[in-house]
Amino acid sequence: EVKSSLFTFEDIVTLERLDVQKVLRDVQNDVLVLALKGTTDDIKNFIFSNLSSRAVENLQEEIQFMGPTRLSAVEEAQQSVVAVIRRLDETGEIYIGRGDQDAVVK
């Protein structure tokens, strides 16, 4: 439980592709744009790899034209994405890996 509460936006890259797609369906587009505004290219590319090419183009365009943004607003958007991840994990729709203590049988 402690590890799941330590889940950060950057940890999204540890999720399975299908789980990321479920998360992205539940995140509003404007929140996702803001969350991606202040993140690394690796994280952006990971998220983009889970979207259609048209969706990626739209997101990239929105990020490009957004202009300077307050760090607090970016962090708030990232926390909103993390909240969606936690909710989906709690309902069993996705799985946040927690090491050996909570292994998954496939």
Structure, explained:
The protein is an all-alpha fold. The chain is 61% helix and 0% strand. The protein contains six helices and no strands. It has helices spanning 2-5, 17-26, 29-37, 41-48, 53-66, 71-90. The longest helix is centred in the last third of the chain and has 20 residues, at 71-90. The protein is globular. The protein starts with a helix and ends in a 16-residue tail after the last helix.
List the main descriptive attributes of the protein structure presented here.
106 residues; mainly alpha; 6 helices; 61% helix
How would you summarize the topology of this molecule?
Layout: H1 2-5, H2 17-26, H3 29-37, H4 41-48, H5 53-66, H6 71-90
Summarize the structure.
The chain is an all-alpha fold and 106 residues long.
